[in-house]
């Protein structure tokens, strides 16, 4: 597939893009000929340097990409994050929820350290974005940066372009895609509502061709509910030039999810991936749990704006995970979770996707009755 436009643009072998917060997954996708994309939302600049250096060693000269939180507006400008600034009514409601479920408190001897470590990972500020950018620019294997929350600020976009780095962005609406095109982005990821994490409300089948038509000739990657070769064939049929996968890697042996979390995913059905504001304050698709369900009950408070909802649920997540409270455990995952039924490997997932893609394309003339046309 070397003649594919996206492959030529980025110097990769197959138009399969894989997003993950796990460096092992990112490096394996890249080594297999696709382009792994490392999510940086939870890394300090020092930690990011360690992760990127490790990936560099694993992939040799192969290009890879990173995903950054680069919104045009930052709600925390001039306002350092602190647990003390949380609304006490929200804190009390969440504490009662976990206490009533019998989920133990964090040990007093460790609580402050654990919470401060969590806070250090939340860096949705202009200052942190610029610090992360400095780290990125020190790694020449990074050939694309994807903005997860809109077009990046102009000064960041210009610096990336000056270093020969392609810039992309996620989009769930045609209106947003047009803004990305106007901003001068190089590639767009049209993410249907089936996807994990922050998504819009338009399904992939409708969104992909709408975005393709709206931003041509900018190449579009299809995202949202992709984990099989037939999905890939559908994406190309609808005008995409590559696929962007995220949730499908959760079930691989390279994934850094705990064994308990993987088992929950293997048992889940497609409808168990629900949209919730409970994690970040913005709509995001996650695995249904008693924690996500509690936030939509009549007695629940309104979720806080990003990033304060992240700050609020930091202690809850630590308590839930440390207690292995399976009914309350959750993670971002798309509706493709219904087909993640057992452990595989990154390379096997890619091989299965490509084999089914080729078979599907080869059988298309027969399936449509156009084999002799």
Helicity level: 40-55%
Q: What sort of overall outline do the alpha carbons produce when their principal axes are compared?
A: globular
- Continuous helix count: 14
| CATH hierarchy: architecture of the largest domain | Alpha-Beta Barrel
Pattern of helices and strands: HEHEHEHHHEHEHEEHEHEHEEHHH
Largest sheet: 8 strands, parallel, barrel
Protein name: NAD(P)H-dependent flavin oxidoreductase YrpB (Nitropropane dioxygenase family)
Pfam families: NMO
GO molecular function: dioxygenase activity
InterPro entries: Aldolase_TIM (IPR013785), NMO (IPR004136)
Notes on the protein architecture:
This protein is α/β, with parallel strands linked by helices and 373 residues long. It folds into 2 domains: 5-75 and 123-254 and 343-368, Alpha-Beta Barrel (TIM Barrel), CATH 3.20.20; 83-121 and 260-328, no CATH class. It contains 14 helices and 11 strands. It has helices at 5-10, 23-31, 45-59, 88-100, 108-120, 126-136, 154-162, 174-183, 204-215, 229-237, 259-267, 290-294, 308-323, 346-368; strands spanning 16-20, 35-39, 64-68, 142-147, 166-171, 187-191, 197-198, 220-223, 242-245, 273-276, 284-287. Helix 4 (88-100) runs parallel beside helix 13 (308-323), helix 8 packs parallel to helix 9 (204-215) and helix 10 crosses helix 14. The longest helix is centred in the last third of the chain and has 23 residues, at 346-368. The two termini are 25 Å apart. The model has no long low-confidence stretch (mean pLDDT 92). This is NAD(P)H-dependent flavin oxidoreductase YrpB (Nitropropane dioxygenase family). One of its GO terms (molecular function) is dioxygenase activity. Pfam families: NMO (PF03060).
């Amino acid at each position: 597939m070397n003649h594919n436009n996206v492959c030529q643009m980025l110097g990769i072998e197959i138009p399969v893009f894989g997003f993950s917060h796990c460096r092992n997954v990112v490096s394996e996708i890249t080594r297999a000929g696709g382009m792994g994309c490392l999510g940086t939302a939870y890394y300090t600049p020092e930690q990011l340097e360690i992760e990127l250096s490790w990936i560099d060693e694993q992939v040799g000269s192969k290009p890879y990409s990173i995903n950054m939180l680069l919104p045009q507006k930052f709600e925390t400008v001039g306002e350092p994050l602190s647990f003390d600034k949380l609304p006490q009514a929200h804190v009390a409601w969440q504490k009662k929820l976990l206490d009533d479920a019998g989920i133990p408190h964090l040990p007093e001897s460790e609580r402050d350290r654990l919470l401060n470590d969590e806070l250090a990972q939340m860096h949705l500020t202009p200052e942190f974005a610029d610090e992360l950018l400095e780290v990125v620019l020190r790694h020449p294997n990074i050939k694309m940066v994807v903005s997860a929350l809109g077009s990046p600020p102009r000064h960041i976009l210009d610096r990336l372009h000056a270093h020969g780095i392609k810039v992309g962005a996620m989009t769930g609406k045609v209106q947003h895609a047009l803004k990305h095109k106007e901003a001068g982005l190089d590639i767009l990821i049209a993410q249907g509502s089936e996807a994990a994490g922050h998504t819009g409300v338009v399904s992939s089948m409708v969104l992909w061709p709408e975005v393709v038509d709206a931003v041509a000739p900018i190449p579009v990657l299809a995202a949202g509910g992709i984990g099989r070769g037939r999905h890939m064939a559908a994406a190309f049929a609808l005008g995409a030039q590559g696929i962007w996968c995220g949730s499908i890697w959760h079930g691989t042996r390279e994934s850094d999810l705990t064994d308990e979390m993987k088992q929950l995913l293997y048992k889940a059905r497609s409808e168990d991936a629900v949209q919730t504001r409970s994690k970040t304050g913005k709509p995001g698709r996650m695995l249904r749990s008693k924690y996500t369900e509690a936030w939509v009950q009549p007695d629940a408070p309104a979720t806080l704006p990003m990033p304060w909802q992240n700050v609020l649920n930091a202690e809850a997540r630590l308590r839930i995970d440390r207690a292995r409270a399976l009914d309350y455990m959750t993670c971002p995952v798309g509706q493709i979770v219904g087909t993640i039924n057992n452990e595989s490997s990154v390379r096997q997932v890619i091989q299965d996707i490509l084999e089914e893609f080729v078979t599907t394309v080869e059988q298309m003339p027969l399936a449509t009755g156009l084999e002799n046309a």
